[in-house]
Amino acid sequence: MLHETLHNYLRSVEDSLRRLDGVYVERYEEEVLTPTRFTLRIRVRFPTGALLELNEAVVYIQGQKEHLRYRYHFQDRQNRLIFRYDNTPHFKTLEGFPHHKHLPDKVIGCDQPGIEHVISEAGDIAQDH
Hints:
Elements: H1 2-18, E1 24-34, E2 37-45, E3 51-61, E4 64-75, E5 81-86, E6 100-103, E7 106-109, H2 115-128
Antiparallel strand pairs: 1-2, 2-3, 3-4, 4-5, 5-6, 6-7
Helix pairs in contact: 1-2
């Protein structure tokens, strides 16, 4: 059953990437470490030169997906930060700790975003630039 759950999750990620227009996937690496743990590393280049990097370390505990760590980083062609979501345990006073979002001029608390949401958010921003 877990194998099917993992397969469906990874397919959902791939489907989200396919919905992006004109992107080039520079890296797509799935690494299954154990029957219940995997990592995902993706680099996507947009036609504008913007770069989206998606990194996750995920474990399934009692059938539930839990992110041990994640980092979703989006930058423009000049390597300037557009946004980055991560769960590095700093910014302890922010709501949603350890989850937070880096913006060019501040860091805000947030809930953990789904990777499909992040892909869509980056795609929407890339279209506007």
